[in-house]
Amino acid sequence: MIRFVTSRRLRALSAQCEQAQARARDVQERADQAYSGYIRSLYGVTARAEEAEGDAAILREQVAELSAAGDDAAAELTAYAERVTVLAKELEAARLEGRSVWLLLHFGEPHSIYSTAKAAMDYTATLGARREGWVSGDDRPAHEVSWRLLALTKEEGRDAFVAP
Fold first, then answer.
1. Bigger pLDDT: 63 or 103?
2. Most buried by CB count within 10 Å: which residue of 13, 38, 96, 106?
3. Structural contact between residues 151 and 163, judged by C-beta atoms closer than 8 angstroms
4. 25 assigned to some structural domain
């Protein structure tokens, strides 16, 4: 079958074709814009995810450091608790026996307690203090003296040690 196409029909088809091409360009432009927005969003999400991963790694490091510091502090507290228990037993034994104990002061701050003055002096010698030359006291303020010994005795009628 043969069909004749008139020039008017040809012009109408040509106009429809141009309209279809214009619509296709418009749809393609909108698709390109949507795709560009999607890619920009994807880059933004990827950057935020990478930043979050970096922050998480830093936080994991900090948690590990804090955990180790907590473990160290707990171990130190346990050691101090054991030392306090030993000192409490020594103080109680001295109180029951009615004898003096010796408080070692380092620049006016309590450092440790000893059952004899010699034991305290021996300890300070390990830290570089002289073994001889200790005096019972002087007029200088305690915070100006590197090491000072103070005898503590049980006061009659009180459940405490006092400096004589």
1. 63
2. 106
3. yes
4. no
